Amino acid sequence: MERKIDGELAVVLSSVSIACKRIASLVQKAGISGMTGAAGAVNVQGEDQKKLDVVSNEIFCEVLRTSGRTGVIASEEEDTPVAVEETYNGNYVVVFDPLDGSSNIDAAVSTGSIFGVYSSDQSCVPDWGADDEGVVQEKCITNVCQPGNNLLAAGYCMYSSSCILMLTVGHGVYGFTLDPSIGEFVLSHEDVKIPEKGKIYSFNEGNYVNWEPGLKEYMDALKKGGHTEDGKPYSARYIGSLVGDFHRTMLYGGIYGYPGDAKNANGKLRLLYECAPMSFIAEQAGGMGSTGRGRVLDIRPEEVHQRVPFYTGSREEVQYLESFLQEA
């Protein structure tokens, strides 16, 4: 599938960059502006919302509504996808996790935003003059529940020691660092490629006891050298923020994983807002995104907030992981 940036898509991506700038500013000032701590609400996932979760979601929704190019938006923080009535004929569907890793905010650990952009299926675009509310909602869900293979663009913005926006439109991955002196993103990472191998793994081993046998065998193998020639154990690095862990894996190689376990069979990461966009980015950089038993981008979502086990990173490392799970 050939992907190009036309004027319409450029407006959407520009709107996303504006949202990222605004959120980056809020994150930097969170400790002194009363934006730390819980908001006192629970999102549709059953997770406690931080104050910045709520504000970041409002920022993303606002900039996408006013872009004039977005027909449907879907957020991890919202119960259902929302038709953008202000545009009536927006060409794009945007899915996003407005502030991934927000549980780290109070400790000033890196957080990030994740987004993906799809085309609207014209047969599923709400007809504001004819459709009732139920039909509009059904069409919004149909528009959003597309496989990752349909993604036109995806990216993430990491809020850390610097603010970095990583983006792909289907022709490689490029990174832009926010220059605070001019308030603009400047190209800093050109045609990023994930190393084919890596000796860093990023898993929450606190859940080890609840993992399936094949995954335990895999983790034990890494600590004995995995499939490396020197036989030295892999290094463990786990931030607990998907964007931060993924960004390190992009640059240094290795593997990131959030598996299912006895308590959560499909893990906790959402297919639409996290796994599909990150898999698209990984593949464009020469890596992989897998459930351990198949390609993430091939999955057609059955629910808006569907969760899947997720492994991503260096191609050879993900394939090595799959060899343990596919044999089970």
Automatic annotation (TrEMBL):
InterPro entries: FBPase_C_dom, FBPase_class-1, FBPase_N, FBPtase, Fructose_bisphosphatase_AS. CDD domains: FBPase. Its EC number is 3.1.3.11. The gene is FBPASE_1. It comes from Micromonas commoda (strain RCC299 / NOUM17 / CCMP2709). Homotetramer. Belongs to the FBPase class 1 family. NCBIfam families: PRK09293.1-1 (NF006778). One of its GO terms (molecular function) is metal ion binding. Residues 4-190 form the Fructose-1-6-bisphosphatase class I N-terminal domain. Pathway: Carbohydrate biosynthesis; Calvin cycle. This is fructose-bisphosphatase.
